[in-house]
Structure formats: C-alpha cells, structure tokens
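pls ignore typos typing on phone
S-adenosyl-L-homocysteine + seq
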Amino acid sequence: MTATAPITQDVLTIPRKLPEGAKNLAGMTREQMREALIEAGTPQKQAKMRLNQVWQWVYHWGVTDFDVMTNLSKDYRKMLSENFVIERPELVTKLVSEDGTRKYLVRIAGGHEVEIVYIPEEGRGTLCVSSQVGCTLTCSFCHTGTQKLVRNLTASEIVGQIMLARDDLDEWPEPGTGTGDDGPRLLSNIVLMGMGEPLYNFENVRDAMKITMDGEGIALGRRRITLSTSGVVPEIARTAEEIGCLLAVSFHATTDEVRDKLVPVNKKWNIETLLDALREYPKATNSERITFEYVMLDGVNDTFEDAHRLVKLLDGIPAKVNLIPFNEWPGAPYKRSSNNRIHAFARILMEAGYASPIRTPRGEDIMAACGQLKSATERARKSRAQIEAEAGL
Ligand code: SAH
Ligand code: SF4
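k done
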C-alpha cells in the first residue's frame, strides 16, 4: 500500500450466497417479520399479535429456541420451527485483551469473516460493529482498507453481531424475571466503526439500527449509536433522516492535498463539500455534536498549522474532535505522532473551545484497536489466486 492510493481499490466483490431453506428471524425488520409470518401460514387477523410475541422472544429475550416461547401454542411453535431459524453469525474465535477488550472473529454466509470489538468501560460498554467484509475505500493508514475481499453485510449479519455480543456477555433478560432494563448495561453503546464504510451499505445498516433501537427489543436509543463515515456526502442527510443516530467523520487532514492521500474518497467529495454537508446535518446540535476523528500521523497531519486550520474549518459546526494516536500494523507506511505533539495539538483545539479527547488505544495486544481490523484468514492468505479459489470465483 502506497500513501497515494486510488479512491477505490481493485476489489473482488463477493456475490452473496443466500442461505437455503429456513429463514433467519434474527435480522428481520418488523415489516419483514410480519410478512414472513403470514407467508408461513399465520392468519392475517392474528398477524399483529403474533408479530409482537415473536419479536419480543427474538429481540427482547434473545432466545434461539422455539420451545421456550411458552405463550405460543405447541402447534404454532411447530410451524415456526419448520419455517424459521434464529441464528447469529458463527463465532470462530474470541480473544480477550489484557485491558478487558474482547475481539470476536465471526463467520458469515459464504465463509467470509468479520471482526467485532467490545470495549468495557466504567458503567458502560461499547460495541464496535462492522458493516462490510473489508472496505472498498483505501485509506492509506487503515489496515481494513488493504483487504481485497469486499461484500456488504446483511441487516441480519449486522444486528447479529450485537446479539452475539449480548450472548457472550450473558446480557439477555431471563424469561419470567422482569424486563431486565434496570441498571447500567454491559453493552450500552454501539459504534459503527468496525470494518467497512457504513454509508456504502446504507439500507442494511439502517434496518439493523432500526431493529437495535426498537423499544421492545434490544432498545438502545438513537443517541447511543454513532455511525462513522469517511465522508460519503450524498448519504449524510439521509443518515439523520432515516437513522437519526450520532455522526462521526473520519476527517484526518486539514488540506485537500493531504486528505486526498489519507482518505482518497476526498477526491470525490472534498473538504469543503464535506463540511457543507455537515453544517446541514439536521441532528447536529450542541448536545449532539458531530465527532471529527483525527488520526495522529507523525510529520503528516500533526503540525501546529494543522491544528489552527482545523479550528477554522470547524467554525459553525457543533463539533468535538477525537484524536486517535495512530495504531500501527505490519507494513504500515506511517508512524504515530509523539505524545508531546498529540497533547500540544489537543491544547490548541481546547483553547479554541473544542473538546478534544485523546483516544486511548484499546486491545492493541489482540490487534483490536482502530484501523487494525482485518480478518485473520485474510491476513494469512497468500495470493489473490488463492483468495479467488476459496471464494469459489
Ligand atoms: N469506514 C468508516 C468506519 C471505520 S471507523 C470510517 O472510516 O469512518 C474506524 C476509525 O478508525 C476511522 O476514523 C478510521 O479512520 C480510523 N483508523 C483507521 N485506521 C487507523 C489506524 N491504523 N490507527 C488509528 N485509527 C485508524
Ligand atoms: Fe474503509 Fe474507514 Fe478504513 Fe477508510 S478508514 S479504508 S473508509 S474502514
């Protein structure tokens, strides 16, 4: 990977093989589940009630076994089990870092793999969810961007990551013990900051987040979800309208010349176009500020001039800046800025009135930190020919 990458790489887009037979209820929106239940023989008249019952079993109680759905008749349960399954993506490996960060490698239909990271914090916990296998964009500092296999995840595969993490954290309420809504949650926040560009997979991400936000299910409110984009301008307004979550932007540079190299999608939508879209982001208010992510790369984007330019660019946007010390990966063409430099950069932003926390890298020992995600098999793979052969192409 050179530091001047093309906007999108020469990728192998994997055709998605649809599973045959029983349909997976986990991942259906309310509308899809209603239709599926009717198609499987639920009388129209009962559809609303059945939908509510099944929905709660799947998304509120998190069960995977039809036998425990005790408010449904035996016959109805039999019908469900003949037509449907309730499945998560398959867990391949789970690594736990010294700092408690957990990284899951999961396998999805077609044999492809994605990574999910759970970051526990005091009184809360954040799950970093992937939206694609790999990423078609080629940000030159990002490990995921060097992965050549790319496919969009389905809504089921996206919400399935959250369900799998709740399984592992044992955070589903026990049937018959109340709703389990009290107290702090282990998994309290979602960031769409794993592998992939979520706004290149808009509909699936939106559907998965709608399911996640539904009050009779996983019930994580829209302000607990942050979607991070590299700057796919045409989808930004839609994100506010159709998802309504918080927004983060991978900004990373203060001139087009540098941003073209770091985040090549900048050649399509440059800094000015991006900032115009963000100024218009309907949800942006002082209480729902846009997060500007800024990776600190030694000698590339970390000068005092950069910090002052950034302050000017942010003018008029309710913003905070997240400074991310660069996380190295094998063969990366950059170095992390020194601590002194990062703190000096943060001070300039702070003096201009912007919150500018420095993100502590989490899970570095298990390659779970920002930008380090890439499936283990992909890393181990030797050649493109082999990738093609394994993908059956
Ligand atoms: N594709 C989306 C979502 C991924 S978010 C996006 O780019 O916004 C992952 C965040 O980590 C992004 O801000 C990304 O720019 C940043 N990142 C990528 N590689 C990194 C690295 N090696 N060190 C630190 N941050 C990195
Ligand atoms: Fe893709 Fe985001 Fe990585 Fe860029 S930083 S290559 S958009 S995952």
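The radius of gyration is 22 Å. The first strand starts at residue 12 and ends at 13. more later
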